[in-house]
Amino acid sequence: SLIRINEINHEEPEITDAPGVQDYEIEGNVEFRRLNFAYDGKQVLHDVNLQIPAGSSLAIVGPTGSGKTTLVDLIPRIYDADPGMVLIDGRPIREYTLSSLRRNIGFVPQETFLFSDRIRENIALGVETATDAEIRISAAAANIAADIESFPESYETVVGERGITLSGGQKQRTAIARALIRNPRILVLDDALSSVDTHTEDKILNHLRDVMKGRTTIFISHRVSTVRNADRIAVLHGGRIVELGTHEELLALNGYYNDLYNKQRLEEELAE
Ligand code: ADP
Questions:
Q1: What is the pTM of this model?
Q2: Is the CB of 64 inside a 6 Å radius of any atom of ligand 1?
């Protein structure tokens, strides 16, 4: 086991700070400029041009495999696009130190990883200075505080293999609390509400709207009910942005978004 752990400890990350990078304040304007991106020669994003003004919200919809996750992964440099294709506040992201870039981004991935540790440590991951009050405020904003407070030892409860098992939705909300505690200028949610019911989803989104006022929010979702209130919605198809606008504007285009809307409305009617 120690050999395997050492292998990981000695692995050099491929994405690192270039010489001369600096810490900059981040306001939160995110831009993709003539962005192309390929995995091992297979191109998955084609000429993406998009500006997301600081403080606004953008929802991304589109079929599986259209490049949604890849697009948001490029913002905190989980993968690297070519220089100058991804910018924050007009400055290529490679000019920021990785630490200043990532400190300002709250990122909720599709698959959440919780450590078998106390829930407070899971929320405060990466923010050593977090106080109990800050942990509680983040949990409340992510709509998980009441659940946690009903656990036997509240925030001291151990989760995971040595402790209690959380539902998929509770895990997702814990991950949202973990992202919010960084007090990020930019929040990215990659399908982060897929395991909660629509009622809980509405509650979380309402909280988030308050928390994220003045900050940039980018979220991927399949539910029209989730994305319809975003300032703008982008439809990604085959690695290209094929529709961009508000809910009403996209409905009027009679394209992918309008189909999605009609399909989900029909599903709801059938469910009733
Ligand atoms: P979406 O989020 O819209 O489902 P993704 O960004 O996950 O789309 O995937 C876009 C395309 O890139 C798909 O064809 C997928 O198979 C491919 N892809 C995603 N991640 C990787 C990876 N790490 N290595 C190689 N190909 C990948």
A1: 0.92
A2: yes
The phi-psi region of residue 268 (left if phi > 0; otherwise alpha if psi is between -120 and 50; otherwise beta) is alpha
Reported as a single tens digit per residue, the pLDDT across 156-186 is 999 988 888 898 889 989 999 999 999 999 9
Nearest protein Cα to ligand 1, atom 13: 65
List of residues 6+ apart from 76 with CB closer than 8 A: 101, 102, 105, 107, 188
Report the sign of the C-alpha dihedral through residues 176, 180, 184, 186, in that order.
positive
* Residue 238 CB less than 6 A away from ligand 1: no
Q: State in Å: Cα 64 to ligand 1 middle.
A: 9
CA of 70 to the centre of ligand 1 (A): 6
Contacts of 80 (CB under 8 A, 6+ apart): 14, 15, 74, 94
